[in-house]
Amino acid sequence: MKSFTPTQRDRGLERLRRLTFGATAGALVAVAGVGYLAAASYAGKSSATAANTTSTTTTTTDSSSSSTSSTNSVQPSTQAPTTGSSGSGTVTSGGS
Amino acid sequence: MAIAVKSWKALGTSVHVLATDAGELATATTAVSEVLEDVDTAYSRFRDDSELTRLNASPGRSVRVSPLLATAIDAAQRAARLTDGAVDPTIGHAIRVAGYDDDFSRVAARDPQPALPQKGSENDLKLRAWRVPGWQAIRFDRRSRTVLLPAGVELDLGSTGKALAADLAARAALVAVGVGGVLVSLGGDIAMAGTPPLGGWRIHIAEDSRVRPDGDGEVICVPAGGVATSSTTVRRWTRGAVVLHHIIDPQTSLPASGPFRTVTVAAATCLDANIASTAAIVRGEAAIDWLLSRRLPARLVENDGTIHYIGRWPDPSGVAA
Q1: Chain B interface includes A91 (CB < 8 A)
Q2: Contact A6/B at CB under 8 A
Q3: Chain A residues in contact with B31 (beta carbon < 8 A)
Q4: Which of A91, B86, B192, B295 would be a feasible disulfide site paired with B282, CB 3.0-4.6 Å?
């Protein structure tokens, strides 16, 4: 193993300190940025079934999903719904 | 994991808040209530003191609006743009003329309203001569938050406004609780935020949001985003012998009369799900290709009850979707 002089070791430690500080500061900026975006998105405060049913299915080839938040189109969910069963914590989606 | 639920009424509809951490339900509920109060103050069409009412009463004048109303107008204009005007916020006058001019509980309680004008009569011709002005008529500057509505333009943010409120409320609730997952349902328009329960949130699909969630019917599991249902079967009233509903076709200024009575869509947000479900009711048959091209899983119920499952929507019969 290569041995270092005390001066080289001190310089290395100093470099490591600077890197650690840089990474921490970067992370803080990123957290603040995400927090700002989340806050800005809510700008309000400063602080049955069908009766007589038959069913048809229309399919489409869909091999990808998108997680981008572009406002230029209606955004699909990243994960498709799956069939479930009723139980605790079920809510109804319907007209109102 | 036991999911905690709190339900109440607000914005003229039912509110359900679900939290994966029962100990955080009260915090989530408070956050949701605050958002809904702000929404009511900003863009209720039935409050004399709401910002939207004041804006609608100030034609031809540039009005600076609150950040929340600006967000709602922005969302409504985006909906109109993405649907080629099928979902249009300038239907305010049309829906009022059709008879939906008050909180719906009072509209529904009225004795039969005066009949619509007879075909060919002077009033009928006046009604037909009137057209939805179209969303491009709104002069809205997002940066300065100023809005100018030309005379004759009246905004109704009911459709996108409720879904946007669900998204905002779910996000606010998650920020308040900090951990776990939250689901907010406003009259059947559902927004989810945070970590879902194992297997996803369970959503019972019905034509009427008042149907009990443990009743018979289809249940889907959704991990995130939003689910919205638009239907012509629930918010209905009569004028004379004519049955009307609240989904206005901007092309005709009258309630939509297409082949679908109910459409449910799952999307990245409740707002986008609602934009798509409302547009599908208005667009009719053309909605199927429109939904497919946008990769939006959807369930459409025809007027005769026939159900179509579109894209990645799970077909309960097991046929590949």
Answers
A1: yes
A2: no
A3: none
A4: B86
Closest Cβ opposite residue B206 in set A42, A48, A71? A48
Q: Do A42 and B168 touch (CB under 8 A)?
A: yes
Phi, psi (degrees; rounded to nearest 5) at B50 = -75, 155
Alpha-carbon dihedral angle through residues B245, B251, B253, B256, given to the nearest 10 degrees: -10
Q: Does A51 touch chain B (CB under 8 A)?
A: yes
User: Is the ipTM reported for this complex over the cut 0.90?
Assistant: no
Which residues fall within 8 angstroms of residue A66, CB to CB, at 6 or more apart? A75, A76, A78, B295
The amino acid occupying position B71 is T
Q: How far apart are the C-alpha atoms of B307 and B301, rounded to whole Å?
A: 5
| CB < 8 Å to B18, chain A | 89, 91
Question: Does residue A37 sit at the B interface (CB-CB below 8 Å)?
Answer: no
What is the mean pLDDT of the segment spanning B195-224? 92
Task: Tell the residue number behind the tokens 């599908």, with chain if given.
Answer: B280
pLDDT band at B245 (very low <50, low <70, confident <90, very high): confident
More confident residue, A25 or B254: B254
Q: Where are the beta strands (DSSP E) in B56-188?
A: 62-64, 139-141, 146-148, 181-186
Please report the pLDDT score of residue A38 as a whole number.
Answer: 41
CA–CA distances in Å: residue B137 to residues B79, B150, B257 = 15, 7, 25
The radius of gyration computed from the CA coordinates of chain B, to the nearest angstrom, equals: 20
What single-letter DSSP state applies at residue B284? G
Higher pLDDT, B207 or A54: B207
Record: contact A58-B212, CB cut-off 8 A: no
Beta-ladder partners of B208: A95
Does residue B6 contact residue B17 with C-beta atoms inside 8 Å?
yes
One-letter identity of residue A31: V
Matching residue, tokens 């249902």: B229
For residues B321 and B313, what is the distance between their CA atoms, to the nearest angstrom?
6
Q: Return d(Cα B200, Cα B195) in angstroms, integer.
A: 9
Domains of chain B: 4-310 (3.10.520.10)
Contacts of residue A21, defined as CB under 8 A and 6 or more positions apart, other chains included, come to none
- Find the helix or strand (DSSP H, E) in which A18 lies: helix A6-41
- The pTM of the full predicted model, rounded to 2 decimals, is 0.78
